[in-house]
Amino acid sequence: MSADAAQLPVVLVAAIADNGVIGSENSLIWRLKTDLRRFRALTMGCPIIMGRKTFLSIGKPLPGRETVVLTRDPDFRAEGVAVATSLEEALAIAQRLGTQKGAGAVIIGGGSEIYALALPLVDRMELTFVHAAPAGDAVFPAWDRAAFSETARSEHPASADDEHAFSFASFERRI
Fold first, then answer.
1. Residue 5 pLDDT more than 90?
2. How many domains, the chain?
3. Is residue 70 part of a domain?
4. Is residue 42 part of a domain?
5. What is the rounded CA–CA span in Å between residue 134 and residue 29?
6. What residues make up the domain containing 122?
7. pLDDT tens for residues 79-130?
8. Which region holds residue 168: left if phi is over 0, alpha if psi is between -120 and 50, else beta?
9. Residue 22 maps to which CATH number?
10. How far apart are CA 76 and CA 70, in angstroms?
11. Has this prediction a pTM greater than 0.90?
């Protein structure tokens, strides 16, 4: 995608526990207000691609973002969202919506199956490493760290708003 200058960059945004867990039973498994604020700031005004289960766990389109739901169910419909049955279709819809709205990126917002499909195509990743090891049934896919350069990192302690310590890290694709 990044080879075509007309394409918006594809940015994967995820929060990942030290043991790779990203969720349990289609729910968030930690309370990190600082991370939720960062997610909002990174994704506001951008089209966001998410899987059907992730969308259903949220229950509605995210305000200020065009939502594209990727699902194997060709009959799935939800008010206020675009539906795609392949990653290629989802990316084409999101690129069109993002270009129309003047967005700076197309966001990959999860869950684990969508991250695995999109990982080979992303230009950048904005990851939150949550310093905890919760039980969960959704994990972030393995990824080739050599294909990315870490461009920024900041450490954050646990606090009244954040139940675990965590790190924000940004990665740009090298190749």
1. no
2. 1
3. yes
4. yes
5. 7
6. 10-173
7. 999 999 999 999 999 999 999 999 999 999 999 999 999 999 999 999 999 9
8. beta
9. 3.40.430.10
10. 10
11. yes
